[in-house]
Structure formats: C-alpha cells, structure tokens
C-alpha cells in the first residue's frame, strides 16, 4: 500500500478534483510552498498535511488502516489459539506415536508451503486473484456518505487492486501459519513440562533399519542447532512401546519433536514471510507524480526559475479602471470588516458629486447576506462599490460572489482594494512592484471586466 503520507496526498488530489472544501485553502498553501526548499515529493506531502490542517482526512485514513490491521491481528490470535488447542487435543495420551504426531503437525503445512512456492514460481510477474480485497473491503469497515469517506474508501480499494498486493497477501498468509505453528509449539512445550510422555513408532512395511535411517535424516537439521536426536538403540527400542519408557530416551524424542517443528515448520515459514515482506517493499505502490494534477503544481513551484537572457515575460493582466457613475451607489464590504469609517471616500471623492446618494449595506459574508443584497439590487438600480480586504483570497467561492453581485447590479460593479484597517494606497504601484495577492485580484477582475477603483 501507499505510505501514510502518500495516502493523504492522493486523497487530497481526489477531493480537490471533486471541488471539495478543505479546512485550509489549497491555493494559499501552494503559493506559500513555492519559496520553500525540498524535493517535489516532500513538498507535496507538506502541502497535503497543511491543507488537512484539522486532521479530518488523516483521521479517516487512520481509521480504515487501523481496522484492517485489527482484523489481521484478531485472525492471527485466533489461528494461534486454534493451533494450541488442536495440538493439546492431539497429545492427550501418555504414549505418543512420534511419526503420526509429526505428520499431523507438519504434513498439511508442508504441502501448503510447497504449493505456495510452486505458485510463486509459476505466477512470477503476474497478478494473482485478490480475494483479500473483497474480504476486507474498506466499505465493510467504515460507514459514511460524506465525500471524504467515499474518497478514502475508493483510495483503499484501488490500493488493494495493485499488483504488489500479492506479496502483501502472501505475507499475511504466512503470518497466519506462523501464528498456528507458534500455538502448536507453545502447546508442545507446555505439555512436555507438565506431563510425562512415552514415544513409539509403528510400521507394517518399514524395517527397524529403515526407521533408524529415516529418523537420523530427520534429525540432521535439528541436530545442527543443538537438539538431541535418538540413537539407533533408542529408535529400535521405541517400536510399539505401550508403557513408560526410559526418561533419557523420551527426552530425546521430545527434543526431536520440538526441533522438527522449529526447523521444518516455523523457520521455513518465517523465511517465506520475510521474502514476501521484502518483495512487497520492492513492489510497493508509490505516488505517481507524473499525473497532470501533480505536474501542474510542480510546474507552478518551478516558475521562478527563469533564464533572464532570452525569456520575455508576458505582461500581467490588469483590471480596467473603474468608471464611477453619477447615480445612486451602494457600498458594501466583502467578508472582512475594516476599522475606518466611510472607507469608500478615498476612492470616490474625486468622482462623486454632491447630489449622489450613498447607502452603506455593511458586510456581505454568508448566504443570507447575499440573498438580502441581490433582492435589494433587483429592486433598486444602483452601482455597487465593493470593498475587498487585503486578506481576502480570490478563490472560487469569492469569485462566484462577485459574479452574482455583478449580474444583479443594474449600474455595474466596481471594486476597491483595502488594506489592514486603512486604504491600500501604497499597494497601487507599477505592475512590476505589486505583490502576488494584488496581482491575483488584477487578473481575476480583468477576466471579468470589473473595474478597480484607484484608492
């Protein structure tokens, strides 16, 4: 799967393409990151984290990830307990048929391990069927009809369909087998500590010498790491034992049983688990920054790199100069209040005459304000002078408000840019010296042919 940072970055991309409203405006964050150092991946991660300033997106992703891991932990615990109980039930007699118990312990496990190895070789480079994606589909783990939850579920389902998931599933299946074998090992050690066992073997076709040879071959690998192996005398004496055997011989058989479970069961399965973990890390899904969405952002961050010798910058758009009518006017502030009373005088004193009427509407912020303003404009043919604070960002929501006001204003709409409590006289300079925010407003107003008042 993607890393947690990549998941958050991809979730932000999905939601932004769906016009989602974030806790922090993406345009503002993208602008601030332009001057910061870091690789494109690092800056994209930083951008996603800052956009999700309230942690809502990361919370949904963490909830899904936590529940998937919780299912895997619960299944591992259940498998471990089943292995413990299964072997506990198998070793309820005082005389144990060694080879029968060994086949019950490792027979099916060995077949499954060899089958997995064969399928891995045959399906090399191919994607196996993904039953895990349907078994733990995120839609079963979290409920919600909001945009964030739906996008997060879709993101996880896309990850579960990735080709590298075959190694993730292989690692999980080996984890379950390791849990089962560990439960068996715990059961064997516990029972060997609290009970006295005798070990025997039986065979109709095999001779004593054949069983001696088989046992010595079986014990070769455990003996390399220090486990005792029954000698030929102990092996011959263990045929068809029906009563207590010498303690030394019983211990040899017991250590061989434990060593066989470790060396032929747990160790090979642990190696397979480690191999799948390594392959999953190599084939792990990574963020595709070649997508147009990411390339557009990275291109914006790199625009300041300019060859001054042969590059000619295109002139920046300039909003048309406002034409102040002689009729009645309505003045209003967009979203932000200002400390100065009669803030509009600095922009209208040169053009207004004594017979003009000015009505102060106040602040236009929420939907109710917009409804009240448009209702007034539909009944009164006036020119609207809208004061825009320097903190306001010309984002989609703000520009939609401007378009709506311009549509209802019979004598037109003009804009006056305001500073922090005072008129922004010092901000009206040549285009080369204007700051980024002022130029954004120039561009937005020029595109809509809305006049800008010199203040």
Structural overview:
The chain has 455 residues and is an alpha/beta fold. It folds into two domains: 228 residues, no CATH class; 124 residues, 3-Layer(aba) Sandwich (Rossmann fold). Helices cover 57% and strands 7% of the residues. The chain contains 17 helices and seven strands. The strands form two sheets. The protein has a five-stranded parallel sheet with strand order 4-3-5-6-7, covered by helices on one side. Strands 1-2 form a two-stranded parallel ribbon. Helix 1 crosses helix 8 and helix 4 crosses helix 9. The radius of gyration is 38 Å and the shape is rod-shaped. About 3% of the residues have low confidence.
Key attributes of the depicted protein:
455 residues; alpha/beta; Rossmann fold; five-stranded parallel sheet; two-stranded parallel sheet; rod-shaped
